[in-house]
């Protein structure tokens, strides 16, 4: 691939001479363009999500494969799901260059490793019942590309989120998502607009998938894990609203007995 828009020079010059107010205004203008580019990719995003929902509904798993900022953002998305939606751990996973235990370390050199990702997928017993989604701003990251190529050879469904057109990673993907966000505010700093786009797409994928899998009712997180006082209080009030229970303490006792708003609601409706 010759076209590397993500590495194109910034349209802004002499940033060191600009004031704080000028800098944040220009960055805000650039950020506003991200949602427009995502809008153009909604058909691709929709197809990828439908594939993920199909795999997970049938008992399969999602594996994100990534390095750098994009890989770390996928970790942040996935670790929220068991708490927010009560989904079992291990359904949504991340293969991160250098390992999730090194999340806080910028191991950028590991993105050139062409064996690690596929080896970790094999350890996880990846099968054709799963789906593997590569994350790469450039669309060329060797760590990601090698994994998707191996998946393709083994009949495993693949997807990707990339920010350059016609990339090798998109070519190796069954369901490619290409969101071309253009040159970065700082030349080549893809943690900026590319990272913003990736975060927004992760939100779309995880939230839409959870809704489609029945983990949300109306507009509420009825399967939220009761892990602290704030969330438990929110869940009690949710149960009261949805069932008509007027007494807070009564609702809390029912909630704690059944472990989730959804199960508590079902108990109340049965009785």
TrEMBL record:
Highest taxon of source: Bacteria
Keyword Lipid biosynthesis in record: no
Matches recorded under InterPro entries: Etherase_MurQ, MURQ/GCKR, SIS_dom, SIS_dom_sf
GO molecular function list: carbohydrate derivative binding; carbon-oxygen lyase activity; ether hydrolase activity
Signal peptide segment: none
Domain SIS: 52-215
SUPFAM superfamilies on file: SIS domain (SSF53697)
GO BP terms: amino sugar catabolic process; peptidoglycan turnover
Keyword annotations of the record: Carbohydrate metabolism, Lyase
Keyword Lyase: yes
Protein name from the UniProt record: N-acetylmuramic acid 6-phosphate etherase
Species annotation: Parapedobacter indicus
Lineage of origin: Bacteria, Pseudomonadati, Bacteroidota, Sphingobacteriia, Sphingobacteriales
